[in-house]
Amino acid sequence: MAPIQVEQTREFIAGLEQGSQTYWDMVEIGDELSRDLHITPELVILYADAVEDFTPWYEAWKMNTWHIPGESPFGAAIVPPLLVSHFVLSVQFDHTKPFAIGSIHTFHDSKIVSPIPVGATVRITTRAADKYEKRGRRYVRHDVTVTDVDNGTLYFRETRDILSL
């Protein structure tokens, strides 16, 4: 491992030894967190390349030209529909608290409401909607919305469950 990885691993283990809480213990029903995300053409290209989705509807960037409007059946270039889902965890876990131990993403149901234009700034909001037990295991359910910061358009909804040890 690189020196920084060794240090991060040691810090993580030290955190466990200090009695880190489980996600179940850290979250209360009704807890809400949100963050804004500016979806740049470069972010879209990085995501599309990573998932090997080369749909031309997402292209709002060209080498030596930089930002272009792009084209899609919705007008200008749009964001790949599930890109925002990948950022939910960065909102769902409160970065001001120590990382919870023993959390596993077990379920999500995504609903695409409207295409997101490339260049939009969206607000990703998660709300702890329920805590329940199933077969002796504890789960926290979150409701997620993704809206446009400027005009309030609802783009995306998701329900997610996290199993907590």
Key terms for this structure?
165 residues; alpha+beta; 7 strands; 5-stranded antiparallel sheet; 35% strand; HotDog_dom_sf; two-stranded antiparallel sheet; single chain; globular; Thiol Ester Dehydrase, Chain A
Describe the 3D structure.
With 165 residues, the chain is an alpha+beta fold. Helices cover 21% and strands 35% of the residues. The protein has a five-stranded antiparallel β-sheet with strand order 1-5-6-7-4. The chain has a two-stranded antiparallel sheet with strand order 2-3. The longest helix is centred in the first third of the chain and has 15 residues, at 3-17. 24% of the residues are buried. It comes from Diploscapter pachys. This is N-terminal of MaoC-like dehydratase domain-containing protein.
Query: Which architecture would the CATH scheme give at its second level?
Result: Roll
Radius of gyration, in angstroms, nearest whole number = 19 Å
Could you tell me the strand content as a percent range?
35-45%
* Number of structural domains: 1
